[in-house]
Structure formats: C-alpha cells, structure tokens
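Objective 1.3, modelling of assemblies. Example input:
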Amino acid sequence: MAAAATCGAGAGSPGSVAAAVDRSSATSFQRKGPRAGGADGGGPRLVSIAGTRPSVRNGQLLVSTGLPALDQLLGGGLAVGTVLLIEEDKYNIYSPLLFKYFLAEGIVSGHTLLVASAREHPAGILQELPAPLLDDSYEKEFDEDGCNHKTPDSSMKMKIAWRYQLLPKMEAGPVSSSRFGHYYDTSKKIPQELLRTAKWHGFFLPERISPPLTVEPCHLTHGYMKLLEFIKKIVSEEGVDGSHPQKKTKNILRIGIQSLGSPLWGDDACCAEACDDSHSLTKFLYVLRGLVRASLSACLVTVPAHLIQNKAITARVTSLSDTVVGLESFVGSERETNPLYKDYHGLIHIRQIPRLNNLICDESDVKDLAFKLKRKLFTIERLHLPPDLSDTVSRESKQDVAVPAPRPGRGCSGLAEGEKHLDF
Amino acid sequence: MADRSGYQQMTALGRSRLKGKLTLLCDAKTDGSFLVHHFLSFFLKAKCKVCFVALVQSFSHYNIVGQKLGVSLTTAWERGQLVFLEALKTSLDIFFQTPAGPHPLQFLREASARNLQPLYAFVQEALKPEDGGEATWRHPVLLVDDLSVLLSLGVRAVAVLDFIHYCRATVCTELKGNLVALVHDSGDAADEENDLLVSGLSHQSHLILRAEGLATGFCKDVHGQLKVLWRRPSQAAAQRDRSLTYQYKIQDKTVSFFAKGLSPAVL
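Predicted structure (tokens):
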C-alpha cells in the first residue's frame, strides 16, 4: 500500500515479506519516520518526497490539498493512496476552486499531475490555476483582510471575556515552512514559467472517446473505462506503483477528476432514478480506489451529488471514497439574505474521514464550518452566530439557525432530525 | 468492572458455545470496522484458521492495526493460518485483462452478476480441512469485510444472500466453524437492496453486533453505542432474545466499553 507504515511494521504485499519479517517488532514506541511506498520493502528510510509530510498520528504520508485550513480539518492533509471526494455545491461555483487549489499545490510542490475532465480541456484548466502567494507577501495579505475583521490582536489580552482567549483559533495562519501547504491568490493566474516546469497528463473525454462498437467487457460506461485505462497507463509509466525500483527519486501523482457522474461522462446517474448502468459510477470508484491504494498517488474527485437522483448511489459513493467533503453555497438559497450568514459564502461539511492503519481518526470537534472567499483567499472558519442585539427577539431567525445540516455525517451520527427535537 | 465486562462478553464469543454460528456486524451511520479488527485478531490469537475476504482495505492496513492489537498478519499468512483475499489488488488484475480461469472476483466483469459461485469456491478451497491426521489449527473462520460493497459492484442482494447461505452450510454446519460478516445499514429506506441484505442476514444470524452513533450527535468521549443481540434463528421465537447495550470509546490500541451514561468523562 502506498501509505507510509511505521518503521517496525511489515511491508504491503505478502509477496515481499522477506525484508519485513526481520523487523517484526511492532511496539509503538519506535520512532515513526516517513516511509513512502509499500511495494518495496527495502530500506528503513527513504528519501522524503517534496511536498509531503508524515502524519503526526501514525506516520502516514500526507500531501496538502492546497487549502491549509482544509488540511487541518482532515487531520494534517490528504493521505497518499486515498481518494478525496468533493460534493459539488449547487451551481458549481466553489468546487472548481478546490479542484484548482489541489492542482496548483501539485505544481508548486513538483508533483506529477493527471487532470481528467469531460467539460474543459485540461490545458485550459491548468492555465486558469491561481498563483501561489510567496512567503514575504503572506503577512501583507493577512493584515489587509485582518483590518476588516473585529478579531483582536493576538498581543492584546482580553479583559472581560478572557476565557475565550483559550479557545483554539480555527483559521490557520500561513505556514512557516514553504514545503507543505501554500496559499493562492485567485485573482492572479499562475505564472507561465511555473507552468512550464510542471509535468502533467491530460484526459479530455471528447478527444478520447470513439463510438463504442462492442459492449465494454466490464459493463462500465465507455468514458469511465477509457479513463481507468489511462490512469493505469500513467501510473505504471510514472513508476508510482513501484514498478521501477531503480528510480531513486520518487514522486507523487496527483489525479484530479472533475464532475464525475455528470451526464457529460456518459453516465445517466444524474438523469434518471432507475438508470441502466447504475453500477458504473460505483464500480469506477472501486477500481480507482484499488489503483490509488497500490501507488503513490492522491486523487481528488468532484461529484455533482445534488444531481444524482438515486440516493442509494450517493450513499454508496460516500462509502467507497475515503474522505468526503461537501460544499453548500448560499447562492440562490434563502440563506443568502439571512443576516446570520452574511459573513460567509457557504457551509462546508466534512462528511467522512478515513481510519487508515488505525482504529481512530483525527476528527475535528467542530462540525459547523463555513467558508468564505475573501478577496484573495479561501478560508474555512467555525460558524459563529453573531449576538442578537435587536430590541425585539426575532423568533424566526433563531429557529432558522437552529436547524442543523440536513444530512448528518457518518462521524457525527445524528439519528434524529433537528427540528423534531427542538420543540421549545 | 463496568468498562471491562463488555469487552469480556465479546471475547467470550469465540468460546465453544458459539461454534458453528453466524455473527453479523452491522454499523449504522458510524464506522464499525473496529469490530472487524477485533474479530480478526481474536480468532488469530485463538489459533483458528481464518479466511479473510477483504474487499475494502489493503493488507497492510489490517496488518498495522493487527500489530497494535497484538497479532502479526504476515506471520499468520506465512504459517498458513491466514488466507487473505486482498480484493483491491486482485481486482486490478481481473478488471484490465481477461482472466485465464475462474477467479473469485469474476463478478466484476459482469454487468449484473448472477451468483458469487467462484468466490464461494475460493472460500471452500481455503478452509477445507487438511489432509493427514493432525489438524494444526482449530475450527475455521470466514471473515468478510464488507458485504455492502458487493452491492455497489453490481451483485444483487439475493446473490449475496445465496453466497452467505452456501458459506454458512460449509463453514458453520459442515466444518463447525464461524462466519463473521460486516454490513452497513443506512437506516433510511434509500438503499432498498442494502435493506434487503441486512434484514435477510439478521434473520439468519445467531449474534448481531450493531454499532450506532449516539442519538444526540457527535461526542468526543463516547464514540457510539454497541447493541449486542443473541438470537436463535432455528427455534421458535417463544424465548426472548437476549440483548445488551454498551457505549464505547475507541482508543489507539483498544476499545473501552461502559454502560450507558457511565462514560469516564462524565463520572
């Protein structure tokens, strides 16, 4: 398995057990170091790959999603060998941003990219990537936006509400080292010289598809089958599955797939409730999971979950992915004009976090998270309700806010609907 | 002690009074994989022959967690105690090339698999008693993680129920072993095939362990609730099935159980 193991643990496949059995002691007191790749069992320490870091909890190799705030919520970053599923917001305004952040982070860290889309040409997507903010301009960006906030200066101590000073701040400041997690300026495009150094492979569906003459052997939609074959080809070409052991430098392959499940891919999951190839999307995700687990790659998939008619497919898609993040933007909904949400652009739901090589996972305590796209930065914050300072108590606004997110996440386990319980 | 008794109850399952039984692990809106890790390490420590059909995670994942729980899967695999089907890896072989012969994951190549006969043949082959006098291992165990993913791969619920029926006949009745399987229960009636599978399995099983989230929402100190239900599927329902409820908190190397409302964080 591509995810890093602790130093004392055995290697991934049973085939390469010879080296692993020698290091059979498995106490957790051993120092955990980053170990990339389970395919080769040799060498206690491998050269660390740029743009990755080991997880604090179990030495798992992590890459940044491009949003340091999201990294913090996912327990440090996206684990190598896993699939991150993003449920798109209703009008697809903010999910392409997350997609671009992921790819931009890959370019800045020097990873190889694989971009697949049925709607835009990958070269066009790469031209639109945001520019990274360099180290010295971090402080300026935060100061400019900080003036609009009423947040107190960190040096100023709170006199009355001093207990609140002990609460952890959700928003992560700029990271001191420039190796993991960068900030991006959405108003500027990525500089061309940086783009030229990037190594990427593109999959644009209309170019690859040919009229299917025979039925696909595994009964997947034609587009999905072609994409899986392409991914497998690139994975073995780049050697991220350990097939070229003589290669000294290892690199991560970042796979980005846009709008999977939409009708543009030839899948009718979004068109009809009882669709013909209702297992196409789930089979695709399963084989993708197998491909990604066996290689040094991290995958981000965006799915228009709100369009999928059959709710069973949504549930299955969620359980087949490792990490699931849902975006809900306020555009077009009644919440846009709600004064309680005026500071934010939408809500972000962390629906699922994987438990990899562990019984537990790093779940964040905060379940109500909201995002906003500031002038140049995308931030995720704990949803704060402003105090109700009106003269008359407005009952409607209180009840509106009291309704929690409609779909309880797997982690937070709300079995009851919020409205039925809050009857006071 | 209140917090230990739940775990002791779970460890008592492998004793003789639960030989030849089907245990169903069910999780509703939470992650019940800790139960799979527990049973895997438990049966390996009890020197049983285990056939593990791992459909959703890789070998190294179970190996690393197993080492935290005190067993080494690589050692067990080398000794022949563990037969491991790592479906994520073998699915790539069968998906991209036509297989030479029958393959346990053959259903991946079909649009709507009629039955899981090749998979059953694999299990049968893995758990067949050794020739020769001495049996090195105790009664065989089949562990499946998890059955709900088979529905996502195009297998009908009826085919999965048939597979479990055949496995139960071989493993439980003929070989006097145990069968442990995990299913996901979504609760709401969105996934009809899954509900069919869960209710069909619940009726056949002798022991149901159901991990659910708390009704009041997320809690840092209590991760969920475990309902243990003993059943007698073959007899009439005149005797009441015994049931117990515990709340649990998952820690790095163990799971602590306690009675409802008596979490150490509260006391």
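The first helix of chain B runs from residue 2 to 11.
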